[in-house]
């Protein structure tokens, strides 16, 4: 069976990457790989759906065994991407999506060089700021912090394979762009070396 | 203005690459760059349409000046791709197509690393042989020679960026595949480094 493709999607807060990914999952062409965490489940969260909720001991054993594609610690809890779940889905021919911040994305690139790294951006920083302020749910301090984080993330653009612009209200277009990338990537020569066998 | 993309298309005889390219040129999204040659024009051939017909002296001066992206000699005549024509078209934002055999394609990769190399193949060697024999215009010797040439070309698959399969009677599908590749390539991060300026 043809192996699936691994997509790692990053992007500053306010670029609407969650909505773009939602479109991709709806059609069943993409599979979302669930992360693992040591934090306790919140009400309504389910094991294997929102996260794999595991103990710190098991998480650390996973890191030691090389079964975390990437991991990071936030506010005293570990979060990471279990390798086996990703590899199983790829082996089944599924296109896998991981939504990961830039640092984790670059960790994955090292462990799985064939991963396709996509950075989702707003058209420009003014649009991004308008979106973040417009939410009205965050203080000016938080908005300023996110803007500075966005600036840092954009400097990592060259480490990514593709940039997809999510224009306001056009998340379906951005999702379509990612489908186009998936189609083109399937034709990449290095993924089709098996064709040589058909010409002997 | 956004620069155009340079596509270098190769493929064994019998893969129908001429028909695929014809589809791409029809819609005006792609521009075919005319080659230069030292051979004399045949009846009906026009300078600047079929070839740039130039003297051996001018051709060799062009090579010495680095104005040939690639060149080769066949049956006592020189054939090559003038760099300036390609660069002018790219600067005008046109997507340029060059149809070049594998050796010339790899010469271009060295001179223009951003070129996109596409190898067009039949689904397998049986299909290719059936096509070549089916033409009925070539002797068994010529067919055998072309088949051996095809085998050699396929071993160079890894040097290409993409492989496009041209299934019998589906050249419009293969053309569409190349349009998909063009769309995806426009989103490649290294072609969008200018976006960083919009996030400062």
What this model shows, in words?
The structure is a homodimer of 200-residue chains. Chain A has 200 residues and is an alpha/beta fold. Helix content of chain A is 40%, strand content 20%. The first copy, chain A, contains seven helices and nine strands. In chain A, strands 2-7-1-8-9 form a five-stranded parallel β-sheet, with helices on both faces. Chain A has a four-stranded mixed β-sheet with strand order 4-3-6-5. In chain A, a hairpin with a 2-residue loop joins strand 5 (68-74) and strand 6 (77-82). Chain A is globular. The model of chain A has no long low-confidence stretch (mean pLDDT 92).
How would the blueprint of this fold be written?
Two copies of one chain form a homodimer.
Chain A lengths: L5 E5 L6 H10 L3 E3 L3 E2 L14 E2 L2 H9 L3 E7 L2 E6 H9 L3 E5 L2 H10 L4 E6 L3 H10 L5 H15 L7 E4 L5 H16 L14
Helix pairs in contact in A: 1-7, 5-6
What are the main properties of this structure?
9 strands, four-stranded mixed β-sheet, 7 helices, globular, five-stranded parallel β-sheet, 200 residues, alpha/beta, homodimer
């Amino acid at each position: 069976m043809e192996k699936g493709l691994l997509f790692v999607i990053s992007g500053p807060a306010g670029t609407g990457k969650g909505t773009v990914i939602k479109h991709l999952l709806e059609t069943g062409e993409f599979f979302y790989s669930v992360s693992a965490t040591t934090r306790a489940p919140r009400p309504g969260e389910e094991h294997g759906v929102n996260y794999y909720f595991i103990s710190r001991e098991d998480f650390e054993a996973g890191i030691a065994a090389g079964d975390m594609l990437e991991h990071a610690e936030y506010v005293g809890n570990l979060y990471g991407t279990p390798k086996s779940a990703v590899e199983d889905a790829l082996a089944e021919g599924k296109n896998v999506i991981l939504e990961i911040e830039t640092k984790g994305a670059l960790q994955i690139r090292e462990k799985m060089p064939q991963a396709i790294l996509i950075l989702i951006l707003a058209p420009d920083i003014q649009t991004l700021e308008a979106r973040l302020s417009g939410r009205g749910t965050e203080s000016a301090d938080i908005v300023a912090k996110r803007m500075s984080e966005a600036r840092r993330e954009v400097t990592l653009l060259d480490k990514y394979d593709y940039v997809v612009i999510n224009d306001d209200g056009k998340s379906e277009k951005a999702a379509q762009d990612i489908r186009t990338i998936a189609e083109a990537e399937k034709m990449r020569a290095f993924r089709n070396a098996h064709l040589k066998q058909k010409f002997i």
